[in-house]
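User: Quick sanity check before I run a bigger batch. Here is a single chain. Can you write out its predicted 3D structure?
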Amino acid sequence: MSIEPAAPQPEVGAAKQSPDASFERLSPNVRIVWLASRTVFWLVVITGLVIAREIGIIDAQWWQTWVFSPSPVWLIPPAHIALRLLSYAGWGYQLRQYDLLVRRGVVTRETIAIPLARIQQVGTSSSLFERLLGLTTLSVRTAGTRTARTRIPGLPSERASVLRDALSQKGHELAE
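Assistant: Done. Predicted structure follows.
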């Protein structure tokens, strides 16, 4: 068992900096990825409902009530898409000396501190939409914590590779 050195404490009387100022933002293009993926999702759901109606799985009364009459159900797809797009404002990350901070959320803001010494694996992945826009998702896996897997979506591919390598190197150095 090794004891990690304590993170440096801020100086007393030091000027306070806005907590958001030091967080790096996701690429704005991630909103296009989110919009495209949510739109495709809802197109598949609606197509499935139409097919179910045509082959008789959904009865005419249900179809008439929920599809053709003004219904709050029609607010679900645009709300689902809009909430994802609004979540962009809450995302950020910051690589510090001993940990990686990941912040997300608009209504409920969550900030996760991932100790670099506990990182077991760092990887990158890209969906079709992300590749088209030059974006990558960074995944960080840690040992024995609630946040065993944390993802940072919407990073420019080169930045994700540099961050992946830096996290791997720092985690290796701190674990020794």
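The two ends are 10 Å apart (CA to CA).

User: Great, the batch can go ahead then.
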